[in-house]
């Protein structure tokens, strides 16, 4: 039963082969039974989910056909949910119950989705392994001694183990794609501005973008249809006519020009076995008529350094509001204002968050701003220019999502080695481009992700390429044995 | 040594938009604490700012009114610092690229000359909330109703040379923002606030001295007193062999002194950077033109028109155009009585004196423009004399009815009947034979005595011109 995809459930619900309540109960049971092995949920909202399911069943009975009507999903705990704890994986927000819904939550509710709960994540989305969560690490369903990736590790693990058919994620430097790759699922980071950031707790505002995580490209397209769209409450959201992201799924690949960025293959650190998986995937796409050529992104080596200036700078400011004054964690018996600030923040934030706040504060301070922040912004433009030139010659770019396989819990104690885990994903965030990861193979029983990067607003094409690939391969259908 | 004072003012004017600069919450003053603050104003996790177009329009109005450049692409930046009434831990402001660039404002000096003061820039920003230190037993209450109220900060060049000039500049700007109807100008409620950068230097020196920034100057009087105190303090420091340190000083009106708040070393590093939640603010020429069309007549233009149209002196025109309300009031009175100079004298004289005496605002005065015009019309048509008019005005102010009603009720109608005046003159002459004899003997000065007697006999109601004329004829006859 749990093998069914989100899209499959939509069809079955519409055909009234199963009720939303039955389906919701099925997944709630799986969560209860299996999640103790994974720790992928921070909060399960069973009662509310069943109420939503009943409402969906009533609407289905009326013949309504909203895109996600009656389908269980999970929200990354970075999205504000009215009346439900919204922790962002942090002790700082452990006591925080949001008084309002994020736009994404609102839109998915309107589309009829049934929220099963809030998924675990790296604290404030800062991390690539889900080990920085206040609620403990999430485990990879393919090998519970390994990490699921991060920061959307809870969503990735939950979907990978089929505890839920689809979940939301957010991607600031690879936080949808890297965990999708590690957990053997499909995940899409849309073009910056596609999905409203209102109510999505900010990490690095100019990079953050919410997106879907599910088994298949088709599922992601369906979810994105509900999630995306202009929002007047987000000044950076893009005003464009509504689009059907599933429209290009059946587009064949004849004549599709795929670019392979030389720099994403030649660098040291790329596991040869991962390289082999990617090469095999390229052959599949070629077999479907795609043309493949090498392209250059000569400044891509600047991505990680630029990112680790811009993202901490913005986070140092974004996280200033967590001061113990109005909501969230407050230290006990503060002696004075300074004590309230320093202890609330000192006790409420974890090490990685503090590290980034300090780096960000430093790069923005007087005398350093030009050398760091301003320069990093210039690097972003150079990187975006690289992509612009590449997209003059090709339709999509293809690369590994990560240089290596899911690593063991605790394996990357050194922050820099952790940061390098996102070496292939960060550039798309800096340029604001859409990018996705889809499962393309297995090595030693662990999934390998393939990354596709598209031009601005070209999500439908990316999903189409991924869907065509998934017509010929079955990696996206595989579920870890312990969760089958 | 002779010292020269150098002053630059930073004025914060609250823009009178209905909702806040980055949220839809209302801006009205005086609500219960934290009742006018939505999730955006409270700095809730995940919220985002959306710029209020009305605030942009008001900023552009100000820019046009001071002949400033309007920046085609200005940028909002975050000013980062921690304070309990600053919910996000940063204030959204403008830093490197403000919406209003270089402009100027002309002020009038005491000697009647005009001085042009440069305005460096004006930028949009959000106000913070308020910390309430009373009534919480060693704790502080936070009221975020004001958080997110739109402000425009108007920064002058350091071209003001005395406290009086600073006050003249501040008053001019105060009048301007109210003319433009972009700020209610209420200084008690903090809608119009001022910080002053003050330094001194030996007369003739071109470099600036070290400045102190004076805060909490929430009245014209405080600005003048604080600057004067500060200038004296700095002179004492330097002449006593010390040096002025760059610092922020708080004015204490109760003790009439400034006190050090924090030094340059303790000052925050605000870590400004462009706010990634807001796109650059693009103001195109079409928008500027639509705003220009909405501009009202500005004080200087109105003043020139009053001189031209009503034949007023430049000084009178200046007084009558000090506020938009006063100008409108004057024009209504002048139109209602068809006597612009008489109207000017009355509005500036009796009427303004009554406002001051009763401590009421123009809009709340018990005598409105129509009422005052009605009174002046009775002077014009000689129903009453100017002197009697003051008595009528007093009664009107006390709510005894309009001019005609008061004149009627009190029997103050002027006596213009020549026969009646003649009869009174005859009576006066008859009852003062001695004076009559002396007058006719050449003591011309006694003419005034007879006028006085006639006016006394008529309780001031006789038409003075007629009295003069008839009396002259009879005495000399």
Please, could you describe this protein's structure?
- The complex is a heterodimer of chains A (484) and B (477).
- Chain A has 484 residues and is α/β, with parallel strands linked by helices.
- Helix content of chain A is 38%, strand content 13%.
- Chain A has 16 helices and eleven strands.
- In chain A, strand 10 and strand 11 (446-454) form a beta hairpin.
- The termini of chain A are close together.
- Chain B is elongated.
- In chain B, strand 12 and strand 13 form a beta hairpin.
- Chain B has an eight-stranded mixed beta sheet. In chain B, strands 4-3-14 form a three-stranded antiparallel beta sheet, with no helix packed on it.
- Classes of the chains: A alpha/beta (484), B alpha+beta (477).
- Chain A binds chain B through residues 79-80, 86, 88, 93, 96, 98-100, 102, 197-202, 204-206, 232-236, 313-314, 316-317, 319-323, 325-327, 337, 341, 361, 364-366, 369, 373, and chain B through 39, 42-51, 78, 80, 82, 84, 87-90, 140, 142, 269, 271-273, 276-279.
Give the topology.
The complex is a heterodimer of chains A (484) and B (477).
Chain A: H1 6-14, H2 20-34, E1 41-44, H3 46-61, E2 72-76, H4 103-110, E3 114-119, H5 153-160, E4 166-170, H6 177-183, E5 186-189, E6 210-214, H7 217-227, E7 257-261, H8 263-266, H9 272-287, E8 291-295, H10 303-318, H11 337-348, H12 351-364, H13 370-393, E9 396-400, H14 415-419, H15 426-431, E10 435-443, E11 446-454, H16 459-472
Parallel strand pairs in A: 2-3, 7-8, 7-9
Antiparallel strand pairs in A: 1-3, 4-6, 5-6, 5-10, 9-11, 10-11
Chain B: E1 3-14, H1 53-65, E2 73-74, E3 76-80, E4 90-94, E5 103-108, E6 114-126, E7 130-132, E8 141-143, E9 150-156, H2 163-179, E10 192-202, E11 212-217, H3 220-239, E12 247-252, E13 257-263, E14 273-274, E15 281-282, H4 285-294, H5 299-310, H6 314-320, H7 324-337, H8 340-358, H9 369-380, H10 386-397, H11 403-410, H12 418-431, H13 433-440, H14 446-457, H15 464-476
């Amino acid at each position: 039963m749990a093998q069914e995809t989100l899209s499959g459930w939509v069809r079955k619900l519409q055909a009234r082969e199963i009720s939303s309540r039955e389906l919701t109960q099925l997944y709630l049971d799986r969560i209860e039974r299996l999640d103790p092995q994974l720790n992928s949920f921070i909060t399960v909202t069973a009662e509310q989910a069943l109420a939503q399911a009943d409402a969906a069943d009533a609407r289905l009975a009326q013949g309504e056909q909203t895109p996600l009507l009656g389908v269980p999903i999970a929200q990354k705990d970075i999205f504000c949910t009215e009346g439900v704890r919204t922790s962002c994986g942090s002790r700082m927000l452990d006591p925080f119950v949001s008084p309002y819904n994020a736009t994404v939550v609102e839109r998915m509710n309107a589309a009829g989705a049934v929220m099963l709960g809030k998924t675990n994540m790296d604290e404030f989305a800062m991390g690539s392994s889900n080990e920085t969560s206040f609620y403990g690490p999430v485990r990879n369903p393919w090998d519970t001694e390994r990490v699921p990736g991060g920061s959307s590790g809870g969503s990735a693990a939950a979907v990978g183990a089929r505890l839920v058919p689809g979940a939301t994620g957010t991607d600031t430097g690879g936080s949808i794609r890297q965990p999708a790759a590690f957990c053997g699922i499909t995940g899409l980071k849309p073009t910056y501005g596609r999905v409203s950031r209102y109510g999505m707790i900010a990490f690095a505002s100019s990079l953050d973008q919410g997106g879907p995580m599910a088994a298949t490209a088709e599922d992601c397209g369906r979810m994105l249809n509900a999630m995306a769209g202009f929002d007047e409450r987000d000044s950076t959201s893009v005003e464009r006519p509504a689009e059907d992201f599933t429209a290009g799924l059946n587009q064949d690949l004849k004549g599709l020009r795929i670019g392979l960025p030389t720099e994403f293959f030649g660098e040291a650190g790329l596991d040869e076995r991962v390289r082999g998986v990617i090469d095999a995937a390229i052959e599949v796409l070629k077999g479907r008529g795609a043309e493949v050529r090498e392209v250059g992104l000569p400044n891509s080596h600047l991505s990680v350094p630029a990112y680790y200036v811009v993202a901490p700078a913005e986070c140092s400011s974004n996280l200033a509001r967590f001061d113990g004054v109005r909501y969230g964690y407050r230290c006990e018996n503060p002696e004075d204002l300074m004590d309230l600030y320093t202890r609330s923040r000192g006790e409420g934030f974890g090490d990685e968050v503090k590290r980034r706040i300090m780096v960000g504060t430093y790069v923005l301070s007087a005398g350093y701003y030009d050398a760091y922040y301003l320069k990093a912004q210039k690097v972003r433009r150079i990187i975006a220019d690289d992509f612009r030139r590449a997209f003059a010659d090709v339709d999509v770019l293809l690369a590994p999502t990560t240089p290596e396989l899911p690593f063991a819990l605790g394996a990357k104690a050194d922050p820099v080695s952790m940061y390098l885990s996102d070496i292939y994903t960060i550039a798309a965030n800096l340029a604001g481009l859409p990018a996705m990861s889809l499962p393309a193979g297995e090595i030693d029983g662990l999934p390998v992700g393939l990354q596709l990067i598209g031009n601005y607003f070209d999500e439908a094409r990316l999903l189409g390429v991924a869907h065509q690939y998934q017509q010929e391969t079955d990696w996206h259908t595989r579920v870890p044995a312990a969760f089958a | 040594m002779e010292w020269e004072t150098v002053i630059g003012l930073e004025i914060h004017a609250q823009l009178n938009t209905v909702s806040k600069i980055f949220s839809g919450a209302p801006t009205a003053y005086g609500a219960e604490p934290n009742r006018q603050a939505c999730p955006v104003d409270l700095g809730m996790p995940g919220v985002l700012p959306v710029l209020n177009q009305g605030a942009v329009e008001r900023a552009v109005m100000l820019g046009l009114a001071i002949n400033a450049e309007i920046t085609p692409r200005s940028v909002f930046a975050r000013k980062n610092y921690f304070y309990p009434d600053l919910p996000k831990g940063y204030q959204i402001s403008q830093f490197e690229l403000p919406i209003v660039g270089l402009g100027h404002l002309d002020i009038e000096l005491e000697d009647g000359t005009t001085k042009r003061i440069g305005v460096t820039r004006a930028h949009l920003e959000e106000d913070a909330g308020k910390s309430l230190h009373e009534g919480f037993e060693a704790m502080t209450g936070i009221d975020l109703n004001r958080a997110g109220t739109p402000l425009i900060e108007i920064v002058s060049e350091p071209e003001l040379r005395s406290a009086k000039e600073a006050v003249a500049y501040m008053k001019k700007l105060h009048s301007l923002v109210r003319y433009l109807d972009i700020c209610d100008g209420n200084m008690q409620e903090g809608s119009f606030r001022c910080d002053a950068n003050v330094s001194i230097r030996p007369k003739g020196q071109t470099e600036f001295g070290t400045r102190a920034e004076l805060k909490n100057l929430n009245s014209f009087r405080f600005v003048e007193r604080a600057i004067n105190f500060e200038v004296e303090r700095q002179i004492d420091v330097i002449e006593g062999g010390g040096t002025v340190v760059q610092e922020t000083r708080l004015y204490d009106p109760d003790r009439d002194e400034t006190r050090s708040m924090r030094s340059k070393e303790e000052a925050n590093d605000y870590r400004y950077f462009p706010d990634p939640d807001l796109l650059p603010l693009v103001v195109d020429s079409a928008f500027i033109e639509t705003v220009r069309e909405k501009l009202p007549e500005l004080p200087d233009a109105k003043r020139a028109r009053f001189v031209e149209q009503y034949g007023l002196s430049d000084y009178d025109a200046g007084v009558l155009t000090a506020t938009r309300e006063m100008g409108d009031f004057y024009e209504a009175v002048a139109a209602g009585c068809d006597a612009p100079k008489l109207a000017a004298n009355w509005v500036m004289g009796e009427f303004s004196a009554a406002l001051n005496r009763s401590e009421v605002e123009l809009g709340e005065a018990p005598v409105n423009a129509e009422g005052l015009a009605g009174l002046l019309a009775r002077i014009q048509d000689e129903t009453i004399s100017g002197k009697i008019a003051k008595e009528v005005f007093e009664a009107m102010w006390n709510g005894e009815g309009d001019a005609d009603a008061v004149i009627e009720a009190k029997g103050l109608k002027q006596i213009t009947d020549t026969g009646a005046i003649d009869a009174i003159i005859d009576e006066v002459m008859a009852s003062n034979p001695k004076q009559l004899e002396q007058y006719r003997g050449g003591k011309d000065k006694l003419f005034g005595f007879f006028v006085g007697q006639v006016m006394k006999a008529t309780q001031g109601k006789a038409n003075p011109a007629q009295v003069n004329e008839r009396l002259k004829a009879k005495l000399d006859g």
